[in-house]
């Protein structure tokens, strides 16, 4: 999600892995928020791309 609240991408992961990697190379400079949801709840993390 960008600073304006627009969802830019949604990726669904399956399996029991606790480590996932996503490519950020297509993001322009700016502030983004990454929402992570699981059976244990939801977390939102701020990401700054310079």
Automatic annotation (TrEMBL):
<keyword id="KW-0378">Hydrolase</keyword>
<dbReference type="GO" id="GO:0008843">
    <property type="term" value="F:endochitinase activity"/>
</dbReference>
<keyword id="KW-0732">Signal</keyword>
<dbReference type="Pfam" id="PF18962">
    <property type="entry name" value="Por_Secre_tail"/>
</dbReference>
<feature type="domain" description="Secretion system C-terminal sorting">
    <location>
        <begin position="1"/>
        <end position="49"/>
    </location>
</feature>
<dbReference type="InterPro" id="IPR026444">
    <property type="entry name" value="Secre_tail"/>
</dbReference>
<keyword id="KW-0326">Glycosidase</keyword>
<protein>
    <submittedName>
        <fullName>Chitinase</fullName>
        <ecNumber>3.2.1.14</ecNumber>
    </submittedName>
</protein>
């Amino acid at each position: 999600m960008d600073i304006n609240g627009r969802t830019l991408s949604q990726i669904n992961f399956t399996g029991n892995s606790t480590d996932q990697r996503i490519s950020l190379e297509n993001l322009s400079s700016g502030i983004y928020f990454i929402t992570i949801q699981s059976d244990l709840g939801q977390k939102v993390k701020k990401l700054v791309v310079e």
